[in-house]
């Protein structure tokens, strides 16, 4: 027969699955002989059974409950019916993982119309007894019968006002007695039944309420958000009451063994005298700093300090401890690992290692990857955020950061306003290369279309700039210069705040907390790097980004997107001249000009990288991305290129594609215009030669994008090698270069073995690979992916987190085939998934050599691969 109930002294901390976090820790504290009020835990299995059996407490459970109550009475020498030794208990839920939103606590259970009088006599304090009763009536009513807390509070406050009482403590016993009567009447009015007088009935109803709360909507939503399984159930803890509200020698409080905000190794907490549990959090009375307790109750304080040190050493982590003092005696009601800010998480992990409490490997497992992201970017002040008015919470967290500024609707205006010294937020339905200067000038970018790999997302992430894409519940109308959102309308110049880590946009300005590096962070990152199996490279092409990436620990560059180098107006003109050329000669002239820019760029990039590998991806945008859209822009381009506007329009029309993402892009461009890639390759090799002449060695790796057939790759590789041979012969020097391909199409995955015979390296472009595997446009999928997640069709947006079954399987298969035929081949991942924690957990298991991501994601990626390794080594150590 299943054992559904464990007395506290039968359990221990390793039994969290069965006893929940709270129950297992209460049992553990009992084992440590800490002053924990006695009690027992009903298991999570009992909860699962209850829900399976259609919300019915089984006979087996009831039998065990009666037996345990009997044993409990024996141990405590108290009972629900005793005149002098009255048993009162608290009932608390406690899942394996703590879950706000589930039913929490009922105190003083066991009181009824008779027992309240006994308590008054026993304590010689009628006021105290009725205060306990009214609290029970209120908590029980809310938790068990769903009577809104406000129904009780409304009456309570009215009563206080009518009688002219300032504080709760001013209400005398008689008053509280009246209040209890009224509360009982609320039961009749709201749920048509009286408050149950029988303590065991109170208990069974409370147990059922806890079980049911596992399935309430809030709890389900919380579990989905935090990826907690639905089938683990919650335990119920029943514990003898101790009273923090029994006079000035009593109190209740919560303390952390270290500061949960800064991580500082100092007790941090607060308490209230003559108060019960919820008073501390209710905010009606202002709690005192735990330090004050030293003066008020020195012995209790000292004992608490010792207990908290003991618990921290025992659990080897910062603890969050709930305590109650009853008539000068300390009781511990709960301990758990304390929630902490990102900054505190790093500080505490490093300090615990330095204090010899945990190992470096354990420290690496203690920090959530999200904390790293938080640390590298400013965040909104939590207090200020609570007051903020939401414009949209439907956006995608495209690039982290938190910032405020004036709304602008065009790149020109963004530049204009920022040159005047104003902070601006660029809001557009989507962005295109023409918006780059505006993006650079803005604090953040918000779009209504596009997903995590849209132009806005990729470019902003590369710049380390805050960005939210796909805010589908707002309309950004750039013509009328307004933003319509569910709560109203915003105009150009209005201030908004953007949280790129959450994908939220708010009205007005919100105070931020700046990112700051610390010694602890540096130490922590060094440990991560030393344990990482995968190399982490960066996707970057500008000097500040590359410098940032190397500072964050990147081992090289995994992707230079060369099309990002044509954003500056003078370069864009030349690119347009090339695209719109009629003849081969015109094209060569335009390319020669572009080459002069590229040589300078590549020289800078290769110099910064030195002997670290640097993958330069040859050009890959759909050509139309470089072309003007608006009539105004077209006229300007016509003037620049000195062609009549109608001729230009015709040229643009000729280049128009129905499906540009599937069109003339990537290596296909070089099949039709070989001189394009040859110009880029010349620029790469010439800049490497220049550096060599200065004694600087570099390692350019030339990458051909969007390959689907071996022939595409071989033709281009032959051309490139011939051109490089010629340059080297002329220069009488050679460069250490390699040529590889991106794997971005499902076909490339299927023939990866064949491709691997031809190339030195390959890199999965998971943005395009996801797009082409699903057939979901990376720019438009945001419109329906949310609904796919809601309906359970897809667990996650596959552009944010690898679709293991489909895209992941293709990556696995291609990697195995490629390494089988060419064990020397270097394989990486350079799409956005290269910086995603969950995706890295998968890549780490494959025979992949590196991942590459935007510079600000490098530390998180390093920690991800380090955490995989630490976990693996633990598995083998066991
Ligand atoms: C990719 O497709 O994953 C990739 C890295 O290339 P881009 O995002 O530039 O298309
Ligand atoms: Mg791509």
TrEMBL record:
- TM region positions: none
Q: Which cofactor does it need?
A: Mg(2+)
In which domain of life is the source organism classified? Bacteria
Q: Which GO terms describe its molecular function?
A: ATP binding; kinase activity; metal ion binding; pyruvate, phosphate dikinase activity
Q: Does the keyword Kinase apply?
A: yes
Say which enzyme class the record assigns: transferase
Q: State which Enzyme Commission number(s) the record gives.
A: 2.7.9.1
Provide this UniProt record's keywords sorted from A to Z.
ATP-binding, Kinase, Magnesium, Metal-binding, Nucleotide-binding, Pyruvate, Transferase
Q: Which residues form the PEP-utilising enzyme mobile domain?
A: 423-503
Q: Which InterPro entries match?
A: ATP_grasp_subdomain_1, PEP-util_enz_mobile_dom, PEP_util_AS, PEP_util_C, PEP_util_CS, Phosphohistidine_dom_sf, PPDK_AMP/ATP-bd, Pyruvate_phosphate_dikinase
Q: Which PANTHER family match?
A: PHOSPHOENOLPYRUVATE DIKINASE-RELATED, PYRUVATE, PHOSPHATE DIKINASE 1, CHLOROPLASTIC
- Name the UniProt record assigns to this protein: Pyruvate, phosphate dikinase
Please name the source species: Staphylococcus caeli
In the record, what lineage is assigned to the organism producing the protein?
A: Bacteria, Bacillati, Bacillota, Bacilli, Bacillales
Gene coding for it: ppdK
């Amino acid at each position: 027969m299943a054992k559904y109930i464990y007395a506290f002294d039968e359990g221990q901390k390793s039994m969290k699955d069965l006893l929940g976090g709270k129950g297992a820790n209460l049992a553990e504290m009992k084992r440590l002989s800490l002053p924990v009020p006695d009690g027992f835990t009903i298991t999570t299995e009992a909860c699962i059974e209850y829900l399976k059996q259609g919300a019915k407490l089984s006979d087996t459970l009831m039998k065990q409950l009666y037996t345990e109550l009997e044993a409990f009475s024996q141990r405590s020498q108290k009972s629900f019916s005793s005149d002098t030794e009255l048993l009162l208990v608290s009932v608390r839920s406690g899942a394996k993982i703590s879950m706000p939103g589930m039913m929490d606590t009922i105190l003083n259970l066991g009181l009824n119309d008779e027992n309240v009088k006994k308590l008054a006599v026993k304590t010689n304090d009628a006021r105290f007894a009725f205060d306990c009763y009214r609290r029970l009536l209120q908590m029980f009513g809310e938790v068990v019968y769903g009577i809104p807390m406000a129904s009780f509070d409304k009456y309570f406050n009215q009563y206080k006002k009518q009688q002219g009482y300032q504080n709760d403590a001013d209400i005398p016993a008689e008053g509280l007695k009246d209040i209890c009567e009224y509360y009982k009447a609320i039961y009749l009015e709201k749920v048509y039944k009286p408050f149950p007088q029988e303590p065991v009935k109170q208990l069974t109803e409370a147990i059922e309420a806890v079980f049911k709360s596992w399935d309430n909507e809030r709890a389900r939503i919380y579990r989905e958000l935090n990826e907690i399984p639905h089938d683990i159930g919650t335990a119920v803890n029943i514990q003898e009451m101790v009273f923090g509200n029994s006079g000035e020698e009593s109190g209740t409080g919560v303390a952390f063994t270290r500061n949960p905000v800064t991580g500082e190794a100092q007790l941090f907490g607060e308490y209230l005298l003559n108060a019960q549990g919820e008073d501390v959090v209710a905010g009606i009375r202002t709690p005192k700093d735990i330090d004050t307790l030293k003066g008020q109750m020195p012995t209790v304080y000292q004992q608490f300090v010792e207990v908290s040190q003991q618990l921290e050493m025992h659990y080897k982590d910062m603890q969050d401890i709930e305590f109650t003092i009853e008539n000068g005696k300390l009781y511990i009601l709960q301990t758990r690992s304390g929630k902490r800010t990102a900054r505190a998480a790093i500080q505490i992990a490093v300090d615990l290692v330095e204090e010899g409490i945990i190992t470096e490997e354990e420290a690496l497992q203690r920090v959530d990857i999200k904390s790293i992201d938080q640390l590298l970017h400013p965040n909104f002040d939590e207090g200020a955020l609570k007051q903020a008015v939401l414009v949209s919470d439907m956006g995608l967290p495209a690039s982290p950061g938190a910032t405020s500024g004036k709304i602008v609707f065009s790149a020109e205006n963004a530049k204009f306003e920022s040159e005047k010294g104003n902070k601006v937020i660029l809001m557009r339905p989507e962005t295109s290369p023409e918006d780059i200067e505006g993006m650079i000038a803005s604090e953040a970018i918000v779009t209504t279309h596009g997903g995590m790999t849209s132009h806005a997302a990729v470019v902003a992430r590369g710049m380390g700039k805050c960005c939210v894409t796909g805010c589908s519940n707002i309309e950004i109308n750039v013509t009328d210069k307004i933003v319509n959102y569910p709560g109203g309308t915003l105009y150009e110049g209005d201030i908004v705040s953007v949280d790129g880590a959450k994908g939220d946009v708010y009205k007005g300005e919100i105070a931020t907390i700046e990112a700051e590096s610390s010694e602890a962070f540096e130490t922590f990152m060094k440990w991560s790097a030393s344990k990482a199996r995968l190399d982490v490279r960066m996707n970057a092409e500008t000097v500040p980004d590359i410098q940032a990436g190397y500072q964050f620990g990147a081992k090289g560059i995994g992707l230079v997107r060369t099309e990002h180098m044509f954003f500056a107006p003078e370069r864009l003109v030349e690119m347009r001249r090339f695209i719109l050329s009629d003849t081969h000669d015109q094209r060569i002239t335009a390319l020669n000009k572009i080459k002069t820019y590229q040589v300078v760029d590549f020289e800078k990039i290769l110099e910064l990288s030195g002997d670290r590998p640097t993958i330069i991806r040859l050009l890959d945008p759909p050509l139309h991305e470089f072309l003007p859209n608006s009539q105004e822009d077209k006229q300007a381009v016509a003037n620049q290129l000195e062609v009549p506007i109608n001729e230009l329009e015709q040229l643009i029309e000729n280049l128009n594609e129905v499906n540009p993402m599937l069109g003339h892009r990537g290596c296909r461009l070089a099949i039709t215009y070989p001189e394009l890639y040859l110009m880029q390759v010349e620029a790469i090799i010439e800049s490497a030669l220049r550096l060599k002449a200065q004694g600087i060695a570099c390692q350019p790796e030339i990458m051909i994008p969007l390959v689907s057939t071996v022939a595409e790759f071989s033709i281009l590789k032959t051309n490139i090698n011939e051109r490089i041979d010629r340059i080297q012969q002329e220069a009488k020097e050679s460069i250490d270069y390699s040529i590889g391909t991106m794997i971005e199409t499902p076909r490339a995955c299927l023939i990866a073995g064949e491709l691997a015979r031809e190339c030195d390296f390959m890199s999965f472009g998971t943005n395009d690979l996801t797009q082409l595997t699903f057939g979901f446009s990376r720019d438009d999928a945001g419109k329906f992916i949310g609904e796919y997640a809601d309906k359970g069709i897809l667990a996650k947006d596959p552009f944010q987190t690898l679709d293991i079954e489909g895209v992941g399987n293709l990556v696995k298969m291609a990697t195995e085939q490629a390494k089988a035929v060419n064990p020397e081949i270097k394989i990486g991942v350079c799409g956005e998934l290269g910086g995603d924690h969950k995706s890295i957990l998968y890549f780490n298991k494959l025979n992949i050599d590196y991942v590459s991501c935007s510079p600000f994601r490098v530390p998180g990626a390093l920690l991800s691969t380090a955490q995989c390794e630490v976990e693996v080594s633990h598995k083998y150590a066991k």
